[in-house]
Design brief:
Layout (H helix, E strand, L loop, with lengths): L1 H8 L8 H8 L17 H8 L19 H22 L3 E5 L8 E5 L11 E5 L9 H6 L11 H9 L5 E7 L1 H9 L1 H10 L1 H23 L4 E7 L12 H7 L1 H13 L3 E5 L8 H8 L3 E3 L8 H8 L4 E3 L4 H6 L2 H16 L5 E2 L12 H19 L3
Parallel strand pairs: 1-4, 4-5, 5-6, 6-7, 7-8, 8-9
Antiparallel strand pairs: 2-3
Helix pairs in contact: 4-6, 7-8, 7-9, 8-9, 9-11, 11-12, 15-16
């Protein structure tokens, strides 16, 4: 925790500048400092950096924290969201990220997580059941407690829209159509059903896609939402999880709809997917019309190669590999950050610095802070940015 204490004793004075981030994502000039970008930072890491316990766990991949009743619950929610903003400003981000939960009950397991920062959460890490889920048949589909679009939990966005500081915007992070269908059916069940019950899979996709669109329309109506981010993991290290033509026919039309909602409202549309989605990159760029792609793994394609291949068509976000951040020394992290920035950031547009996925609780805080600190140093040396 020594590195964390040093960081807290010398807080960064960062003035959010979303216009610089917007310029970068749209690959416009003039050249400027490379912004930081993450799809999310787990609350345990944020709490360790700030030295404050978050009243609520708003991480979307865990069961939600129970909200205390009455005014106590309101205070807890407000305090938690205020800490999201405080963290984003202090770390040097030009936006605050916030997932939009859809309240879709699903089967999750849990395991003891010894890597979590001391004192955070309940000591467990949650994981999805890949074999089964609450929807296995048409009868399950009909009985499932699908929320109405007006029941979406968008109050978090509404509050942040009122309180983000000058120069800062919000990234409204939507859950994915394919990914959520895997959660609800189990990936194994979904894979079989694509052949045995394709109409059931399409119905699940349509329900989730409708919720995504409703959430996106609400987010797009808020003045201080600058980014609509669709998170939809569709790849493994070797390729897409299902055939590319199935994704083109059954899933990507929903992403295209989301991108249209964002662009019609003057918002940016960022797409996140883990794994190797090379087979559908042209579709994402030319048909869906994403502004930027997030999430890269060295085992699939190092981010420098991504910039070479697609950097003249979309912005490239992140790419400091999760394995490196998790298991390397601070010096190794700093060296890798320099390599990536020299290769991808020299133009001063079209690239944002960040992890290859997200800042998980198993990433040492000192390595996360080293990545950001080296990014600041590089920006100072190359663009005079403070």
């Amino acid at each position: 925790m020594e590195a964390v204490e040093r960081r807290r004793s010398t807080p960064m004075k960062h003035q959010p500048n979303f216009e610089n981030l917007r310029r970068t994502l749209l690959r416009e000039g003039p050249p400027g400092p490379v912004p930081f970008f993450e799809i999310g930072v787990e609350p345990g890491v944020m709490g360790a950096v700030l030295g404050e316990k978050f009243p609520l766990d708003l991480h979307i991949f865990r069961p939600p924290s129970p909200l205390p009743p009455g005014e106590e619950g309101t205070r807890a929610a407000v305090r938690t969201l205020d800490l999201f903003v405080k963290f984003s400003v202090e770390m040097g981000y030009d936006y605050v990220f916030m997932f939009v939960p859809f309240n879709l009950p699903r089967h999750v397991g849990q395991t003891v997580d010894s890597a979590a920062p001391p004192g955070w959460s309940d000591g467990f890490r949650y994981w999805e059941n890949e074999v089964t889920g609450p929807i296995q048949s048409w009868e399950d589909f009909e009985k499932y407690p699908w929320p109405n679009p007006e029941q979406l939990l968008v109050g978090q966005l509404d509050y942040l829209n009122l309180v983000v500081p000058e120069g800062m915007k919000i990234s409204a992070n939507m859950l994915g159509v394919f990914e959520q269908a895997c959660f609800l059916m189990g990936f194994q069940t979904l894979a079989y059903a694509l052949y045995d019950q394709p109409d059931l899979v399409d119905a699940v996709f349509a329900k989730i896609g409708g919720l995504c669109a409703a959430a996106a329309r609400h987010a797009a109506s808020l003045d201080n939402v600058g980014i609509i981010l669709q998170s939809d993991d569709m790849g493994s290290n070797n390729g897409t999880l299902i055939k590319p033509e199935m994704l083109r026919e059954r899933v990507l039309p929903y992403h295209k709809r989301m991108a249209s909602i964002a662009h019609e409202a003057g918002k940016l549309f960022v797409f996140h997917s883990c794994g190797n989605v090379t087979a559908i990159m042209d579709d994402l760029i030319d048909d869906v019309r994403i502004d930027a792609k997030h999430s890269y793994q060295d085992a699939v394609l190092p981010v420098e190669k991504v910039c070479e291949r697609w950097g003249d068509q979309i912005s490239v976000l992140g790419g400091i590999d999760m394995d490196l951040l998790s298991r390397s020394t601070e010096e190794q992290v700093r060296k890798r950050v320099r390599q990536v920035l020299d290769a991808c950031g020299a133009k001063g547009t079209g690239y944002c610095l960040g992890s290859g996925n997200s800042i998980a609780e198993y990433i040492p805080v000192k390595n996360y802070l080293a990545m950001l600190d080296e990014g600041r140093r590089w920006n100072q040396e190359n663009f005079g940015a403070k």
